[in-house]
Specification:
281 residues, alpha+beta, five-stranded mixed sheet, 7 strands, 43% helix
């Protein structure tokens, strides 16, 4: 039962509501013993109450992904993630920014701290036009050095894409596969993680990448360096995209831990929750 965590929170509110007033007894007054005073229930912690409201607002799929657990432990882990966010560049979108088919950025959005990728000793670049946010590139170098120690050379094929580049990319796939199929594998302009400058496509950008040592290493170790697989297998109805074994997004180590512990290691669920938490009064 994965919904105990949520149901228990709802029960807390229902329980205190029911106990707010003592039940009246219809027996004659003279036959009653003097009742003991009923203490007022302790007020519910505002953060627990907010957590309950946020969870109730989430999709059933997201609720079902959350394992049994202590709400206070969940909130403590959430606070760690939000504290880390305070260190992100204040003049740009957060690394936790929810972008998907319904949450977008404008045509004029470009990350503030883009760094052009150049040939280096840590990883291979497959194009000369690649760029990433500086924090994402720093993390990529760290991860690539760790992979290299294990005999793995990571090859970077696609990174930041502007709105106009994504528009051309999407239209190309529509011309090749038709609109319905293109929607499964290419983002419309303004809805791509690549426009945030924190996503990387590795290798040959094909399902066969899953069979490579590089992909196997990423699946085993990427979260240790803050990189999360965005579109896992079997979750197209959640993410809107078919499995992409090559597409990883930099979100930071603490967020990766939070995602794995509380959201069945599904990035989309975690970002939907964080977005709802921030927007809940």
């Amino acid at each position: 039962m994965k919904r105990t965590f949520i149901v228990s929170l709802i029960f807390i509110i229902s329980f205190f509501t029911a106990c707010a007033k003592p039940k009246q007894n219809s027996a004659p007054v003279e036959s009653q013993a003097i009742p003991e005073p009923v203490p007022e229930p302790a007020p519910l912690d505002p953060k627990i109450e907010k957590l309950n409201r946020v969870l109730v607002s989430m999709t059933d799929s997201c609720k079902d992904a959350i394992p049994n657990g202590d709400p206070n432990e969940f909130l403590a882990d959430l606070e760690k993630v939000l504290q880390i966010e305070k260190a992100f560049p204040s003049d740009d979108l957060s690394l936790y920014y929810l972008i998907d088919k319904t949450h977008k950025v404008g045509a004029d959005y470009e990350p503030k701290h883009l760094r052009k990728l150049v040939a280096n000793d840590d990883y291979i670049i497959n194009k000369t036009t690649l760029a990433l946010r500086e924090d994402a590139d720093d993390a990529l170098h760290e991860m690539a050095r760790a992979a290299k120690k294990d005999g793995i050379i990571l090859d970077v094929s696609s990174t930041y894409r502007s709105y106009s580049t994504q528009e051309r990319t999407f239209n190309y796939w529509v011309s090749v596969d038709g609109l319905e199929e293109a929607e499964r594998e290419s983002a419309r302009p303004g809805t791509s993680q690549h426009q945030l400058g924190a996503a990387v496509d590795f290798g040959n950008i094909d399902d066969s990448y899953a069979l490579t040592d590089g992909c196997k290493w990423l699946n085993a170790h990427s979260e240790e360096y803050g990189w999360s697989l965005s579109f896992p297998q079997g979750y197209e109805d959640i993410t809107g995209y078919r499995w992409e074994c090559w597409h990883f997004r930099y979100i930071g180590i603490e967020a990766c831990k939070f995602q794995k512990k509380w959201f069945s290691d599904i990035q989309q669920f975690m970002f939907e929750f964080i977005d709802a938490w921030k927007n809940m009064d």
